[in-house]
Amino acid sequence: MADTIEARCAAKGLRMTGQRRMIAQVLEGSDDHPDVEELHGGPTACR
């Protein structure tokens, strides 16, 4: 099984756009479930 969200998406044939890549990185770096404001704010908003 793939270790990252990006790898899982690639394994399923999903195209990783810049937005999807950024969201995947934010989700992987978060200790909890970020809300839409945190996602919209980018990777630094969750830290």
Structure overview:
The chain has one domain. The protein is mostly helical and 47 residues long. 53% of the residues lie in helices and 0% in strands. The protein is flat. The protein is built from 3 helices and no strands.
Distance N terminus to C terminus? 28 Å
Strand pairing plus helix content: what structural class? mainly alpha
Return Rg in Å. Answer: 11 Å
Order of helices and strands: HHH
In the predicted model, the low-confidence regions spanning at least 5 consecutive residues are none
Q: The biggest beta sheet, please?
A: none
**Mean pLDDT score, rounded?**
81
- Sheet-strand content, in percent, reads under 5%
Number of H/I helices: 3
Q: What number of domains?
A: 1
Number of strands: 0
Shape: flat
Helix content: 40-55%
Question: What's the structural blueprint in terms of helices and strands?
Answer:
Blueprint: H1 5-11, H2 18-29, H3 36-41
Keywords:
53% helix, mainly alpha
Question: How do you describe this structure in short?
Answer:
The protein is mostly helical and 47 residues long. It has helices spanning 5-11, 18-29, 36-41.
